[in-house]
Amino acid sequence: MQTAPNPLSILVIDENRLRASVIEAGLRDAGYVNLTVVHDVVGIARRIAEVEPDVIVIDLENPNRDMLENMFQLSRAVKRPIAMFVDHSDSASIEAAVEAGVSAYVVDGLKKERVRPLLDMAVCRFNAFSRMIRELEEARSELENRKLVDRAKGILMTTRGLSEPEAYALLRKTAMNQNRKIGEIAEGLITAAGLLSPPEGER
């Protein structure tokens, strides 16, 4: 049965042409047709910017410490799913790969039939990690907004003699009237209050 073409754009980085052909064959068998194979790691960041791949597959036959570190720096920068094949590794390199955000790090496992499942795993892990980061950032932003709203309520309660519910209701009403977020209104109020308050020496 013919595999339906997969629209994902994949960049394969491999200095060894024979090994690159194994990866390419595995990807084509799995239905990936939008492939770019690069055999030279020099200027690879520029090539990634040109190709704009959805996924990157890196194969390092006998990586030394510097080459691994360069690839880990690359994976930190590109923010895309990365599957990396290496012939040998140690626990420190595996740990560094995880910290660098490599989605699938495979030691001594380059076989044509393994390319597809590992690529799928890399994409799934990357998506899960990205979702977790996004949720964390949203939670942090919500906490910051809450702090701003609390400070703005305090200013309104002090300057206008409002109760806490009244101060919040005023902020909310202003935000709705101006079609803005309540956090933006609170931040503007805090800034304005800071500008209007007398300098330290004049209090």
Tell me what the structure shows:
With 203 residues, the protein is α/β, with parallel strands linked by helices. 60% of the residues lie in helices and 15% in strands. It has seven helices and five strands, in the order βαβαβαβαβααα. The longest helix has 49 residues, at 112-160.
The total of helices stands at: 7
* Poorly predicted regions: none
Total number of strands: 5
Shape type: elongated
Radius of gyration: 26 Å
Mean of all residue-level pLDDT scores: 81
Largest sheet: 5 strands, parallel
Strand content: 15-25%
Distance between the termini: 82 Å
Helical residue percent band: 55-70%
Q: Could you give a quick summary of the protein structure above?
A:
This protein is of the alpha/beta class.
Descriptive tags:
203 residues, alpha/beta
Helix and strand layout, with pairings?
Layout (H helix, E strand, L loop, with lengths): L5 E9 L2 H13 L2 E7 L5 H8 L3 E6 L4 H14 L3 E5 L4 H9 L4 E4 L4 H49 L3 H14 L4 H15 L7
Parallel strand pairs: 1-2, 1-3, 3-4, 4-5
